[in-house]
Amino acid sequence: MFEGLGRATGPTRIACIEGSGEFVRLTLRHTLAVLGLALAPLAAQAQLAVILVRHAELSGEPMHPQVEMPLSKVGAARAKRLAAMFGHAGIATIYVTEFVRTSETAQPLARQIGRKPVVIAKADLPGLIARLHASHSTQRVMVVGHADTLPEILTALGHPKQVQIKPYDYGNVFVVVPNGKKPPTVVRLRSD
């Protein structure tokens, strides 16, 4: 399932759970268990899970404003890893921006699950959040965004901590699970 992640001398560490001001490092086995719990359907009540992914590596410089900039070979490989990671997570809808790099990141997963990504303007954060609440309150949804939009989306979904993504860091994946009136549970994964 996680081909291409490589083998370290010790347990592979790919995730952090944010909580009480510190990060807790998890091994791959623990990450899969936590992710399974976060994405498992609840019998008594349906739960929205929003999976936020930064687009994969570009064929040009990070943060490039050109809309038509495609993924590099490394980026295409990351997109395939994301499809392997989330192909069986029950994702109902994938949102992408008008930038080619987001749709190319989503394509392997979209083909695997038989869904066409929905394009929403990068600048329309209020529209995206409204759609997530109005149309997907009982579904798992993936949003493929950018280093400058994912932190804003996390904040809009109620995550109380500021998140910063560096321009050359393409491996960020956030699983956001609402918790009623309390801040959501946020699991930060890596797709490296």
Q: What does the model show?
A:
The protein is α/β, with parallel strands linked by helices and 192 residues long. The protein has five helices and eight strands. Strands 2-1-8-7-3-6-4-5 form an eight-stranded mixed β-sheet, sandwiched between helices. Strand 4 (91-96), helix 3 and strand 5 (118-119) form a beta-alpha-beta unit. The two termini are 13 Å apart.
Tell me the helix content. Answer: 25-40%
Shape: globular
Radius of gyration: 16 Å
Give the total of beta strands: 8
Main sheet overview? 8 strands, mixed
Q: What portion of residues belong to β-strands?
A: 25-35%
Q: What is the spatial order of strands in the main beta sheet?
A: 2-1-8-7-3-6-4-5
Amino-to-carboxy terminus distance: 13 Å
Spans of at least 5 consecutive residues with low confidence: 1-26, 41-46
Structural class: alpha/beta
The SSE order reads EEHEHEHEHEHEE
Number of helices in the DSSP assignment: 5
Give the overall average pLDDT: 81
Gist of the model:
The protein has 192 residues and is of the alpha/beta class. The chain has helices at residues 28-39, 73-86, 100-113, 125-135, 150-156; strands at residues 13-19, 22-27, 49-54, 91-96, 118-119, 140-145, 172-179, 182-190.
